[in-house]
Amino acid sequence: MRSLLFVPADGGSKLEKAMASGTDAVIIDLEDSITPERKSFARSATLEFLRQASATKQRPRLLVRINGLDTGMTDADLEAVVPGRPDAIVFPKAEGAPSVVHLDAKLTAREAVAGLPEGQIKILAQAVETAAGLFAAGSFRDASARLIGLTWGPEDLSSELGATANRDPQ
């Protein structure tokens, strides 16, 4: 995947426009772009969008960025979106192989309930968004057959490290 387009899960027409953008993957965001009071609506909107969009023959990959394991919202996110058969889950604040194994187990259970083949839904881990993730980066190798890649989050990492700026002044 060369280009990834993040769109808020409650973005309405933005989601439809993203499908025609030419991007390699549309990432439907349930994490940072959704306020707590809109999470439930955003989950329902994501499932509806996935069901409609997945029927499109020529389409970008459809990924869903869930809320991280430490938020207490991961299970609700997965319950809502797995029946929509996303191509992958974008896993924020992944902190090493154990966190990927944990998410893999959650996906396996939900795929079984949804009647999907085990391992159908892949994982794209946002591995370097926290200091712990940075130090655990070497552990991701062979963590799960679902793991299709790693990304990093410079904004979250900078914030956690207490940086006052993450770019040189221009």
What does this structure look like?
- This protein has a 6-stranded parallel β-sheet with strand order 1-2-3-4-5-6.
- It is globular, with a radius of gyration of 16 Å.
- The chain has helices spanning 13-19, 39-53, 74-81, 97-114, 131-135, 154-161, and strands spanning 4-8, 25-29, 61-65, 88-91, 122-128, 147-152.
- The protein is α/β, with parallel strands linked by helices and 170 residues long.
- The model has no long low-confidence stretch (mean pLDDT 89).
- It contains 6 helices and 6 strands; from the N terminus they run βαβαβαβαβαβα.
- The longest helix has 18 residues, at 97-114.
- It has a single domain (4-161), classed as TIM Barrel (Alpha-Beta Barrel).
What shape does the CA trace take?
globular
The CATH superfamily appears as Phosphoenolpyruvate-binding domains
Q: How many β-strands, per DSSP?
A: 6
Widest sheet: strand ordering? 1-2-3-4-5-6
Which stretches are low in confidence, meaning pLDDT under 50 for 5 or more residues running? Answer: none
Measured between the Cα atoms of the first and last residue, the distance is 31 Å
What is the number of independent domains? 1
Average residue pLDDT: 89
Provide the structure class. alpha/beta
* CATH structural architecture: Alpha-Beta Barrel
CATH topology: TIM Barrel
Radius of gyration: 16 Å
The topology string of helices and strands comes to EHEHEHEHEHEH
Write down the CATH class: Alpha Beta
How many helical elements? 6
Helix content: 25-40%
Main sheet makeup: 6 strands, parallel
**Range of strand content:** 15-25%
